[in-house]
Amino acid sequence: MRGSVDMNFLFTLGEVFRLLRVYADKEAARYGITRAQWAVLAKVERAEGLKQSELAEQMEMQPITLTRLIDKLCDNDWIERRGDETDRRVNRLYLTKAARPLLGKLAGLRSELTATALEGISPADAHRMLSQLDSIKENIRNAIQAPAGQSLRKEQRYG
Q1: How far apart are the C-alpha atoms of 102 and 30, rounded to whole Å?
Q2: How far is the C-alpha of 74 from the C-alpha of 93, rounded, in Å?
Q3: Which residues contact residue 12 at a Cβ distance below 8 angstroms, ignoring those fewer than 6 apart?
Q4: Contact 31, 102 (CB under 8 A)
Q5: What ranges in the chain are assigned the alpha helix state H?
Q6: Sign (positive or negative) of CA dihedral 98, 104, 108, 114
C-alpha cells in the first residue's frame, strides 16, 4: 500500500465496507432478500419479541424505513408482528416457521462472504485483525463520548 496510514486508513476502511455491502446485496438477492431485510431478520433472530421501536433504535434507522422493511418481511411470511400484552400501541417482532430455513441458508451465505473476504489471510491474522478492529471501535466509541474538543490521547502520527 502506498502512502501513509493517516492518508489511507479511513478511505480504505470505507471502501472495504462499501464493497462488502455491494457484495452482500448481490449474493442475498439469490434468496430473494435484500441486505437490509437480512439485517432485520438477524436482529429479530437474536432477540425475538423485540419492540419495533427498539429495533429501529438498535439499527439506527428511521421508524418509517424499518416499518417498510418489516412490512415486506411480513408479506413474505418471514416475520410476524404481535401486539404487546400491556401496551396496545406496541408491536413485538417474531420469526415465523418459514423464516428458519431461510436463516439457515443465510448463515451459510454469511460464511461464504466471510471466506471470500478473508481469502489468503491466515486464521491467526484474521483473529488479530478482528481484535484490532474491536480496539478501533472502542477508541471511536470513547472519542464520541468524550466532551467535544477533548482529545483522549496524545496526538500520534502514523506514517
Answers
A1: 11
A2: 10
A3: 1
A4: yes
A5: 5-28, 35-46, 52-58, 63-75, 99-117, 123-145
A6: positive
The SS3 assignment for 124 reads helix
Q: Which three cell numbers stand for residue 7?
A: 492518508
CATH 3.20.20.140 corresponds to the domain 5-117:
no
Judged against a pLDDT cut of 90, whether residue 106 lies above it is answered with yes
| Residue spans per domain, the chain | 5-117, 122-159
139-152 pLDDT, tens digit per residue, is 999 999 988 776 65
The dihedrals phi and psi of 33, each to the nearest 5 degrees, come to: -135, 150
| pLDDT tier, 159 (very low <50, low <70, confident <90, very high otherwise) | low
* pLDDT tens for each residue of 53-96: 999 999 999 989 999 999 999 999 999 999 888 888 888 999 99
| Cell numbers linked to 29 | 438477492
Q: In sequence order, what are the residues at sequence separation of 6 or more whose Cβ sits closer than 8 angstroms to the Cβ of residue 121?
A: 129
Give the angle 54-58-60 at the CA atoms, nearest 5°: 115
